[in-house]
Amino acid sequence: MGAASAEDRYRLQGQAVCLSHGHAVALSHTSGAAALGLRLWGVDFRRVHVTRLDGGPSRRHGDVVYHADSWTPDDIYLVDEVLTMSPVRSGLGTAALHGVEQGLVVLDSLIDLDLASMELLHSTYQLIQGWPHTGRLQVTVRLVEPGAESVGESRSRFLCFAQHLPKPLLQFKVYDETGKLIGITDMAWPEHKTLGEFDGKIKYGRLLKPGDDVSEVVFREKVREDELREATGFGMVRLIWINLHTQRATGARIRRMLERGGLAA
Q1: For residues 12 and 222, which has the higher predicted lDDT (pLDDT)?
Q2: Can you tell me the mean pLDDT for 69-86?
Q3: Within this chain, do residues 18 and 139 fall inside the same structural domain, yes or no?
Q4: What is the rounded CA–CA span in Å between residue 109 and residue 237?
């Protein structure tokens, strides 16, 4: 068995803190999001966050942050015998404590994993406006939309926003001349005749069939890309993890491709 990841250790730490308090607190914010399996990237695992259910005050004690936010019984979930704030409250709490990119990752996953609807996300955001740290949520919540299926896809969308690129369509379906679906791309800019894909090792792992190795998956992806390009006449932007760390250069590359595609449209 491999060593536990930082997120796994953080999840166990949160469970231990919550169990030691009985029913006086519920995991919330980043700790609640981790317990519920929301996607997390670039978040702070140094402190466990709990919301007080006993009416006590907000405070920080050691590596535990106690929040005195208001709540209703509908906000409380039981996850692995531990009380946890609801997915939408935990997701918004996490986004409030972090930057827009980190917040977009967790809130996109809230929708993609079917743990909340867009309507519930927006109505809950309206309820908590004005709470501590929620000012930045105005931007983060506005950027959330269905269709981002991984951390890389959410971060790719944030890159487009940060670099002032046109907003891509998500999960873009491509059909052949007979109307048969031949593929779905992570992103697309149809008006610029450009498709977009985020390529991560995890994504290739999901595509592995019994007996396959990665080279076979890469070959199949190349064949798939050729079919998509042939069917649409579009160019293809492929992003990998390193591109997300060089946003300005990557943004400029995407912009050039969009401009070329737009001129050809």
Answers
A1: 12
A2: 94
A3: yes
A4: 23
